[in-house]
From TrEMBL:
Protein name: Putative GNAT superfamily acetyltransferase
SUPFAM superfamilies: Acyl-CoA N-acyltransferases (Nat) (SSF55729)
Domain of life: Bacteria
UniProt xrefs under Gene3D superfamilies: 3.40.630.30
Domain N-acetyltransferase, residue spans: 20-181
PROSITE patterns, sorted: GNAT
A molecular function (GO) term: acyltransferase activity, transferring groups other than amino-acyl groups
Alphabetical keyword list: Transferase
Organism: Paractinoplanes abujensis
């Protein structure tokens, strides 16, 4: 990777390219808008919202990160993070989202670069967050565009979530760590030469585990798990279990996830090969 711009100019350039202004938020009205935006994205049960205005108010008063992305129509994206143990110089990015009408403009990328510049300015070296390992586009974004690395597989991490994205599925997550001090830039496509398939896609769309002995292995995920949850709940459940058993077991055994191919494969280097 190459860092063509320092963190703040890189963040400013990404915001301009996305057609937004990104700023840290503290006012009650803006914090309320964050809550409304997230409610519209996750379509949550009103009794169990992703965040609340009073929580955001307390977080910002304590110096944590709440930022919004704005275009001419108002707030189109937001991101929330809080500090970890002081000695680790780390933040945890809890939730980020972009309104559906603003998808495809690079707003999520601009928000993450803004968060990176803000954190580095305060002496933070690492940002962690969790994401659903079955969501292919998020895996590509987190690992290839940002350069984060999964470090832990977390089965059913949040318990049951009643929203329009997770549905009735278990909330398995990968814990990412993003080294903010590393040079920033897109990762090259991984070299899959000689890689063995540990979890494949069958002709009917089902997951197919395969025995492997090589050092580099590939773990497939569905091309669109969110659509699959709506059209074939049982198949989506089989993918959840298969990825947990294959990818989770590899990570628990010391394997490193080193890349993600755009075709929907985690690239994993086994420690015991």
């Amino acid at each position: 990777m190459s860092d063509l711009l320092s963190p703040t100019p890189a963040a400013d350039a990404a915001a301009r390219a996305a057609g937004v202004e990104i700023r840290v938020l503290t006012e009650l009205a803006e914090l309320h808008d964050v809550c409304r935006l997230f409610d519209s994205i996750w379509r949550s049960d009103p009794a169990d919202p992703p965040v609340t205005r009073d929580l955001l108010r307390a977080m910002t008063k304590a110096g944590n990160y709440v930022a919004g992305a704005f275009d001419a129509g108002g707030m189109v994206g937001a991101c929330i993070a809080f500090f970890g143990p002081p000695g680790r110089r780390e933040m945890h990015s809890h939730i980020a989202g972009v309104g559906r009408a603003a998808h495809g403009r690079g707003i999520g990328y601009a928000l993450k670069l803004h968060q990176r510049a803000w954190a580095l300015d305060l002496g933070v070296h690492t940002i962690s967050w969790t994401f659903d390992p079955l969501v292919s586009r998020n895996a590509y974004f987190n690992m290839v565009k940002l350069g984060g690395r999964p470090v832990q597989y977390l089965p059913h991490f949040y318990g049951a979530m009643t929203d329009g994205i997770n549905g009735a599925d278990d909330t398995d997550r990968l814990l990412m760590r993003w080294d903010l001090t590393a040079p920033h830039g897109p990762l090259p496509a991984p070299d899959l030469t000689g890689a063995a398939v540990a979890l494949d896609r069958g002709p009917d769309g089902d997951p197919v585990p395969r025995p492997v002995t090589g050092r580099t292995v590939l773990v497939a995920v569905p091309s669109d798990i969110e659509s699959l949850r709506r059209t074939d709940v049982a198949c989506a459940r089989r993918w959840r279990v298969a990825v947990r058993e294959v990818l989770g077991s590899l990570i628990d055994g010391g394997a490193r996830v080193t890349g993600f191919d755009r075709a929907g494969w985690y690239v994993v280097e086994r420690a015991d090969a």
